[in-house]
From TrEMBL:
Gene3D superfamilies: P-loop containing nucleotide triphosphate hydrolases. Pfam families: SLFN-g3_helicase. Signal peptide: none annotated. Residues 262-417 form the AAA+ ATPase domain. This is DUF2075 domain-containing protein. SMART domains: AAA.
Amino acid sequence: MALLRTRAKAIALADEADRRELARVLAARMEREEGRAPGESEVASWAESLPALGRELEAAGLGDVPILIEQRMPASSRRADVVLAGTHPVSGEPSYVVIELKQWSRVTPIQGSEELFLVPGMRNHPQLHPLVQAVGYRDHLTGDLEVLHGCEDRVEAIAYLHNAQDAGVAPLLESAHGGRQRVFTRQTTSELHTYLRQRLAPESGEQAADLLESSPFRFSPAVLERAADVLAGRHDYVLVDGQRTAYELVRRAVDSGMSGSSREVVIVSGGPGAGKTVVALSLLADMAKQGRSTALVAASGAVTDTLRHYLRAADSRLETLVRSVNDIERAAADSFDLLVCDEAQRLRDEPGWRSATGWRPGKNGVRALCRAAKSVVFLLDDDQAVRPSDAGSVESIRRMAEAEGRIVRRVRLDGQFRCGGSAAYGSWVRDLLGFGGRSPQPWRPDSSFRVRVADSPWEMEQILAAEQGEGHRTRIAAGYCWPWSHPRRDGSLVPDVTIRDWHRPWNVRSTRPLLGLPPSTLWATAPGGEGQIGCIYTAQGLEYEWGGVILGPDYVFGDSGWQGRPEGSADDVVKRADTRESFEQYVRNAYQVLLTRATRGIVLHSTDARTHSLIRQLVSGDR
């Protein structure tokens, strides 16, 4: 869905007041739909770039063509600047053009990359080639919308730099991405007119716009389920925006490491569902395809075992691409060209200690990876550290990597590729849980992601059973607020999670199957996991279509807002956090993880009456 659908001639605005009003309307709609206000630069670009494009469309005789502004990608929060929808002048079929708009007038190429550039006013941050951006959006649309499946030739992608002369952006035009054919400047507007007239008839194309906006999504399998196809070269993930920037920075770092010119670390950070694992697997696949020595190291046992499970089932040879931190600690120096560390916030920094037999050296995951590989990429989220031993923050990794003599580069991912792509839901969760002093806000129903409240665990199970009947994978996870018993002698699980008259077991404790039930690390993905309750340690880094989340007595809402209650926790490690504030941080992070595992919808319940009443009031509009 676009923020605004209109005609090209409606945005061909010359008056400054009209341009400001267009930007104001778009800003208000973005804040309503995504729960965030756009930045000043984004608002300024709407006021300048959109009217500039509108005037060129009118000059080309295409003023009646429907224009979809800030068109959202399927199951993602990312948006294309503009999609033109119309009818092809020859075939009469629907025809679309994705356009990336830039106000740039000058660029400087970054050595070793044809996709990254430096742009004045962008604080020396690498910027992605605008045509690469547009192509990424095109590929998302053609890959994920039913109406475009098998009709990829109906969608084109271009970039328009309305402030630029050719000389100022020559590196873009001369890149290997067909720049001169599909990157247009203020100097080549006549070529732009010709290009568009060859793809769009002057008549209104409202039917084509309707088809695009009403098309169902083609929901993809979970990221790790596709891993074997990606690593075997049978499928490629589509990387957009920051994902592509991160990928290109790492590829460039690997080349530098191989040549010996520099040894680099790239830190990729982003919230839940930001697309970090997709970047990790894309790098792993492409480096392996090029014959580079590479491996993925997941600092989460559940992610490691789940990935190995899928790879083993497809081709046991692929399993060797996944290593544990312990494997890396035993590796010789520079054994790998690239190590990819996902869930890096879970890395540990254990000090050395003196035993009866002598001094035992400590273990440091960051140091071990840096010593074992010429180049390393760490993918993490500071707000997903859930135990005192989780030592892999952006700052600590930067500090330790620099101590190892590494050049450190950073990329922040801000997209949302889980939770139906709903940026509004991600923002709502952070408001709900009180991140950064934020206050809970009412949930505005979003067609891309459902939020429901169950007044009992029984009702939660009923809702999820209905979704399971529709073929959706469902799981219930809870705060770690009940004991986790070992199985009985007959192998049956103890129903530890008790809420009034409702009793269910935690997932299997062992990393081996038990009586047909999946091991702990495969609870989120293997058949049979829906019968047990998962926790932060078996859910983190994984996803399923519908989730239930039970908030326990360790995190409740009171007169002064959210309160962490160590006495309500059964997690002996987290309960021993240095301060109550630290305990609250770990518990808040854990609930954010649990609340962002689902791709289609979530069901909430709190065991605390006041907290549950708050959630019920906030979600009253989504049933």
